[in-house]
Amino acid sequence: MLRRIIKFIHHRNIQTFISISIHQSAKLHSFPPNSPNSNIAAPSFNLNHAPAQQIHGQDHDMRFMEYDALLRDCVSRKHVKAGQTAQSHMIKTSYALRVYFGGRLIVLYLKCGCLDDAQKVFDEMPQRNVVSWTAVISGYTKSGVFNEALHLVLEMLRSGTNPNEYTFATVVILCTSASQFECGRQIHSLIVKSPFESHIYVGSSLLDLYAKSGNIHEERLVFEGLPERDVVSCTAIVSGYAQLGFDQEALDLFCELQSEGMSFNYVTYACVLTALSGLAVFEYGRQMHGRVLRSHQSFYIAVENSLIDMYSKCGHGDEESVVELYSNMKEENKFKADGTTLLTVLSGCSHGGMEQIGLQFFDEAASAGGVDLGIEHYGCIVDLLGRAGQLERALHFMKEMPLKPNAAIWGSLLGACRAHRDFQVGKVAADRLLEIEPENAGNYVMLCNVYALDGRWHEVRKVRRLMKEKAVVKEPGKSWITLGQTLHTFYAGDRSRPDSEEVLLCKVGEMSIG
């Protein structure tokens, strides 16, 4: 297995432009066992008043303590110049070659962004321990220099250094950040054979790896195998479900963990609110909002954005108020809008028929450059123009946008063509959809509807024959309803549930009220 991992890393050409988005890093450095300063507070020390001759004359343990205190202070304050001065003094006293102080210097230089200095210290160390290897790999990973970090992993494995739990966590984070998911899986195989599989830092990094790679099954297996769970690991698994569209599973797991007495932070609540947005269950959303208020975590911007998104999708229906709130907060500089907030507001403009306002917000964000515009933002503009009946303009916008339109955007345009009876643009959208998603039954159904609106029944029959030839089957519609305190899922035409009659009566009641 080790040879396979080394070969895998050695032959991969890793791209280094991928941005890092990882959980809070674990603390990687500690005192060496039985070091003289392990239980002693750091004394005050100033190199400007302590010439090298004075240091030479000091007791060995005292010098160790003072150098360590000085380097600790440099690291905490990011004083790279003082650290370089300390290194010069340590060279004169032969302390710079010690593995322990070499590790401290590496941490300082990496924290200050001095990768070359850190690498130089590392290269000049006559001996390297697992802490120094881990520090350098972590530093390169945080700086986005993934190629060099992976090659350092290769060197470490070849050197015979045994990784500890922090090393494994760091290497998994590296694989996740570099999108080298297969390499991460092979590292996981090494972890399984080590004593560190159950360590919380290792488990959290593996959860993030499998969530980012879209492998929710492996992520759940890792989570279930953790002997102890903390808020980081619980948030990671809930977030993984929500990000991959498993909204019901995310909510179910959250409720299960809550019943076990687990406490959560604002990141967890933001993830659950995202899942509730996908389910569009208003009452559950209100209950979660109340829970957030009681936990005093509603002031976090991530939670506020998720609340706005949840209410906009769960039937709040007051798009004008959302837009007004967004405008006021921008004018008063109360917050800096992020991509999620902008997406929610653009969606509100689209559903509220506020075409010009939505285009204005989008243009402002594009020109200001403060928000990274993703495919979802461009999709919102296509939806906005489509709902306004400006289908030719929407098609032109799609041709000019810097990102390639995905199936969701083409589907939005096709739906608008059906609503506004535009056969010409609808045919273009349908053809592109069938190229992108030839197995999606919904695309064939929408194309049939467009043909039917134009009276082209011969074309409708051709599409249906094509569906039979390709064995494309339309999935039944799915919905959710709350009975008492329980959220139920049911499908169109499904009579297999023992409470089918109660569910149907409740749904009819909701429709009557609406």
UniProtKB/TrEMBL annotation:
PPR repeats: 129-163, 230-264
Gene Ontology terms, MF aspect: RNA binding
Alphabetical list of InterPro entries matching this protein: E_motif, PPR_At4g14850-like_plant, PPR_rpt, TPR-like_helical_dom_sf
Keywords: Repeat, Transit peptide
GO terms of biological process kind: RNA modification
Pfam families reported for this sequence: E_motif (PF20431), PPR (PF01535), PPR_2 (PF13041)
Family under the similarity heading: Belongs to the PPR family. PCMP-H subfamily.
Species per Swiss-Prot/TrEMBL record: Salvia splendens
Protein name, as recorded: Uncharacterized protein
Keyword Repeat in record: yes
